[in-house]
Write a structure and sequence with these properties.
Strand content: 35-45%
Largest sheet: 9 strands, mixed
Structural class: mainly beta
Number of strands: 16
Shape: globular
Number of domains: 1
Oligomer: single chain
CATH topology: Immunoglobulin-like
């Protein structure tokens, strides 16, 4: 198995070929992050409803690229890591949540921390034909941020690039998704990254008024087999 690199990202970012040589202004390694355990009785603020406010005109815009995927060949259920690049292509800075440490945001009483926001990073599995269709969604990785938790927010200035390394499992949450993946000719599918962010109000409702939900401008092709065939 080998890491698949995307030449198109090199063109986009004017970087040297190879994921290890792509330059970014900020880097978050989710699997290597330090995590805090909190008492089970702690209140963890979560997004409890859909976005209450969505504007056609956002504060800025993001460009998302799927930089690398750990393997080129998978057995359904495999764990792996992947990397994405988030570029601020707008004219205003945007504040991104920058901590996967859910335990750091636990509250003694039910309340929403100041400036609380969260982002979801995930992969879509698409068919590899001329008219690609979404087959399944892999479970998302959540990243948190608040003014009350040091170093949990990242201000991404215009033109700056953030690089995130995230874990995933090649297992669709719905049985229909798993069946659809394994029905693809020769097991060949494409992976596309997805990023969305919400500020969270006192009622636990997300407000998407800074950046729109974003899909990567590229895909990476991999092959997936049933576990019994390995």
């Amino acid at each position: 198995m080998r890491v698949i690199l995307l030449p198109a990202v090199v063109i986009l970012l004017s970087a040297a070929p190879g994921a290890q040589n792509v330059k970014s202004d900020h880097y978050l390694d989710i699997p290597g992050h330090t995590y805090t355990s909190t008492p089970a009785s702690s209140f963890h603020p979560l997004l409890t409803g859909v976005s209450a406010l969505t504007h056609q005109k956002y504060l800025t815009s993001l460009k998302l690229a799927l930089l690398s995927v750990q393997f080129s060949d998978f057995v359904l259920g495999d764990h792996f890591v992947y990397e994405v690049l988030i570029e601020n292509t707008g004219k205003a800075s945007v504040t991104l949540p920058w901590s996967p440490n859910k335990g750091a945001f636990g509250q003694r009483v039910p309340r929403i921390p100041a400036g609380y926001r969260l982002a979801l990073i995930s992969l879509h599995v698409e068919s590899a034909g001329e008219q690609p269709a979404v087959l399944a969604l892999l479970d998302a990785q959540t990243v948190y941020g608040s003014e009350e938790v040091p170093r949990s927010l990242l201000v991404l200035a215009p033109g700056q690039i953030a690089r995130i390394r995230a874990p995933a499992q090649f297992s669709a949450s719905m049985p229909e998704g798993r069946v659809a993946i394994l029905r693809q000719p020769d097991g060949v599918v494409r992976l596309r990254a997805h990023y969305s962010m919400d500020r969270v109000t006192e009622r636990g409702i997300g407000v998407s008024d800074e950046v729109p939900s974003t899909l990567s401008t590229n895909t990476i092709t991999v092959r997936v087999m049933p576990r019994e065939l390995r």
